[in-house]
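Hi C.,

You asked whether I'd gotten around to modeling the 252-residue construct. I have! Everything is below, sequence then structure, no commentary in between.
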Amino acid sequence: MGGLAEPIVDHETEGLDMARPRRGSRIGLQRWVRRGIAVAIVLALMPVVLTFLYLPSFVHPVSTLMLKDLATFSGYDRRWVSIDDVAPVLAYSVIMSEDGQFCFHRGVDLGELRGVVDDALAGEMTRGASTITMQTVKNLYLWSRPLGSVRKVVELPLAVYFDAVLSKRRIMEIYLNIAEWGPGIYGIEAAAQHHFGVSAKQLSRRQAALLAVTLPNPIVRNPAKPGPGLRRLAALIERRAGRAGAYVGCLR
């Protein structure tokens, strides 16, 4: 009679109470998953939409590297120039140096790509198979490092789409205006002025060739101060550009 009453515990209710946090955690996880999927869809659609926005010649796209330089307050030099105001030999030299099949493939050079796959399967050192179109979409929408293999998976369909929407001349115009030609130097006009003190339209055949062979590694290679190896490579590209013929027909 005088003792404390034993508390009554509803074990069934207690079990339900313990289950609620777990169910709440699952709901929270599902919410984050849905948000993640929504963000992924938006990111995937951005290049699709931006590609159409880049159709008009008065639109001057910027690269992800340029955005990074702005975000880090590094600054950069880029002066947009129409492809009509670029010495034709410069574009020809870039094609003969970077992507000889530019005028014939549809964003991806399947022959080169098959060669890379065959080399990889054989355990041999692989060579680069990036086309000018692939480099353009990478510069516009993607990243260089890390996860390069993941980037390539995204880059291939984007390059095919980009090539289907834009003309070859417009692709080349964008590429020449966003390519990096030295630390903080983007685009052919800034590069010509910085390295040779002339406009892009005034570039000589040798200057054009030197700028073209700088593209694979513009941080290390300096077209204004080329070493013997770079000079030999530029001489080869200069000869090839001089007899490019149908290889550059899509730009004429």
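If it helps when you're writing up: The chain has two domains: 17-53, 59-251.

Thanks,
B.
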